[in-house]
Write a structure and sequence with these properties.
Blueprint lengths: L1 H7 L6 H27 L12 H12 L8 H26 L9 H31 L14 H12 L8 H26 L9 H31 L2 E2 L2 E2 L4 H12 L8 H38 L1
Antiparallel strand pairs: 1-2
Length: about 300
């Protein structure tokens, strides 16, 4: 029964493993996260776009901020994984086990989606302060020098935001952040599990890194298409300026309405390439690392148990 449950739930690992897997992936995908944010803010309000393509954005960042400029906001990215990702995966694991059958049979796809939505909402609420810090730190370099916030690291960002704008500002954009996370989790976690199960029914796939890669890429694509409109609304709310006491946007609906009117319908998917280039590999790397740690962990536990039994 236990082995079946482990096979059905690839997230059944101690929480520190979730953090290690997610943070390992961040070191690889952080530059893509930065480019995604810059692309989403490019041409805001109908202005001339700062970046023609993702490659143009990368070249411009390297030229003006140096190669290490691509890693601006790394501390916030790691802190986001320590709060948001660990919470969402931990909640998902707990609910997955509770809704699994007594014989270890995994829950159905609709139940997985429901579990993903709940896990995403809870994780997003916990992780919003890290999220707003990350968005501001990755977008700071595009601003004129006199307008830059100049946060030194994520803890400096959290402290200054609380002191200068009030502690509740740490949860600015919490609504769209939670909606985005709900969409991402419903799509990412559920589609990964479902894609993996379906692939394993085919003769060409086995429970190995190739299967994990294919399932992750399918999950990443579905997640990108579903979550980008909410993500761009979140990004613009969290970076908006307040002029004469009046914020640029009233809320997520106001962002989306102005975005479509001024920049066109397909601007809802502005920055698709870096978003998927970031989310796809991050999904792949996180789940591949997770699967490998799962195999190592349970292999070690089994050997240790067998040794004690002898």
């Amino acid at each position: 029964m236990r082995s079946a449950r482990h096979h059905g739930n690839m997230l059944n690992l101690p929480l520190p493993h979730f953090l290690l897997c997610s943070c390992t992936a961040v070191f690889i995908t952080q530059p893509l996260d930065l480019v995604k944010t810059r692309m989403q803010l490019s041409g805001e309000g109908g202005k001339v776009r700062e970046h023609r393509t993702s490659f143009h954005a990368i070249a411009r960042v390297v030229r003006s901020e140096g190669v290490l400029g691509l890693y601006n906001g790394l501390s916030a990215g790691l802190f986001r994984q320590a709060t948001y990702s660990t919470t969402r995966l931990g909640v998902y694991q707990s609910l997955f086990d509770n809704f699994s059958g007594a014989d270890g049979k995994p829950p159905g796809v609709l139940t997985k989606i429901g579990i993903g939505v709940v896990a995403g909402a809870i994780g997003a609420f916990v992780g919003t302060p890290a999220e707003i810090s990350l968005i501001r730190m990755t977008s700071d370099g595009r601003l004129p020098l006199e307008q830059r916030r100049g946060y030194k690291n994520v803890f400096n960002a959290l402290f200054r935001i609380s002191r200068e704008e009030g502690i509740l500002t740490l949860w600015r954009g919490c609504g769209p952040t939670m909606v985005r996370a709900m969409v991402v989790n419903a799509a990412q976690l559920a589609t990964y599990s479902q894609a993996k199960q379906l692939l394993l029914t085919l003769d060409h796939f086995h429970d190995n890194i190739i299967c994990h890669f294919a399932a992750s890429m399918i999950s990443g694509l579905v997640t990108t298409l579903a979550s980008m409109p909410v993500d761009i609304a979140k990004t613009r709310i969290q970076t908006m300026q307040t002029i004469n006491g009046v914020p640029e946007y009233k809320g997520a609906i106001d962002v989306l309405t102005k975005l479509i009117r001024r920049e066109g319908f397909f601007s809802l998917w502005k920055g698709f390439t870096p978003y998927y280039a970031r989310l796809g590999p991050h999904t792949v790397l996180t789940f591949i690392f997770l699967e490998q740690f799962r195999m190592l962990y349970y292999g070690y536990s089994k050997r240790r148990k067998d040794g004690v039994a002898q």
